[in-house]
From TrEMBL:
<keyword id="KW-0963">Cytoplasm</keyword>
<comment type="function">
    <text>Adenosyl-L-methionine (AdoMet)-dependent tRNA (uracil-O(2)-)-methyltransferase.</text>
</comment>
<keyword id="KW-0808">Transferase</keyword>
<keyword id="KW-0949">S-adenosyl-L-methionine</keyword>
<keyword id="KW-0819">tRNA processing</keyword>
<dbReference type="GO" id="GO:0141101">
    <property type="term" value="F:tRNA(Ser) (uridine(44)-2'-O-)-methyltransferase activity"/>
</dbReference>
<dbReference type="GO" id="GO:0030488">
    <property type="term" value="P:tRNA methylation"/>
</dbReference>
<keyword id="KW-0489">Methyltransferase</keyword>
<protein>
    <recommendedName>
        <fullName>tRNA (uracil-O(2)-)-methyltransferase</fullName>
        <ecNumber>2.1.1.211</ecNumber>
    </recommendedName>
</protein>
<dbReference type="InterPro" id="IPR011671">
    <property type="entry name" value="tRNA_uracil_MeTrfase"/>
</dbReference>
<dbReference type="GO" id="GO:0005737">
    <property type="term" value="C:cytoplasm"/>
</dbReference>
<comment type="similarity">
    <text>Belongs to the TRM44 family.</text>
</comment>
Amino acid sequence: VRTITPCASSLFPQADWLIGNHSDELTPWIPVIAARSSPSCRFFLLPCCAYEFDGSKYQREDSSCSLYSDYMSYVLSVCEVCGFTTSVDRLRIPSTKRTCFIGYERRHDAGRAEETDRTIQEFIDSRGSKNKVRNVPTSSEGYWSEFKPREGKEVVRNCTQLDKSLLEDIVSLVSRILLNKRRNISATSIDGEERVWNAGGCLMLNEVAQALPREKLKHLKKQCSGLQTLLRNHPWVFKVEQGAVQLRVPKRRSDLTGTGCRTKPCWFHGNHPDGCLLPGDECAYQHL
């Protein structure tokens, strides 16, 4: 296993086929590498995430269609510029991104290789200008020197690597901020007992963020996109919609479908000033 960087040393003159399966940043480069490897080299390409030649995210150019459809049109244009007769097909796989490209033969003979190569480079250069990236080809490679492969070890940025105590502190702080906006609701148990419970207010995420200590937000942003990610990762406590957050009202066990009672402890039972709105035998979560 090795990192492939588009350059003269990453050609495959002995290969009959190059296969790009969800090749991400290398997706637009697969037809180019195939075209420059040898006259007999062909390719199979199954794109997923949309990237440009320099490794940046592809920006949609046709607002009348989805980003994916627009990118598929772009990939096909790359295949054509590289001189391939390209077949477009849809694989029978359990995925919404199943459009594939098969460059199975060349439209031009080997005698026009230099002309095709110039056309390819002009196309790459034009994409560089479009994305405001300066193209500085070396004399031996003629590829983008700005292309940067993905880091070998990607940084996890979804809150799963945060210190547990920090997570608990932020969840507790946000819940207290919401509870200060008192909003009482009531529920009647199966036995007929009525209970009043503070459901708290509904606040915009930026309001909640402003009320949190700066230091905690600083630690949070190192690991994820911010407060919203953390709150969405706690759906049994919070309900996040349209940029606003509120406490989630506890669900009854009878409201669940399929698997029945959940095994996760009820957060409200141990942390809410009023306890859980529901009795332990009715709550969808465990009262420990």
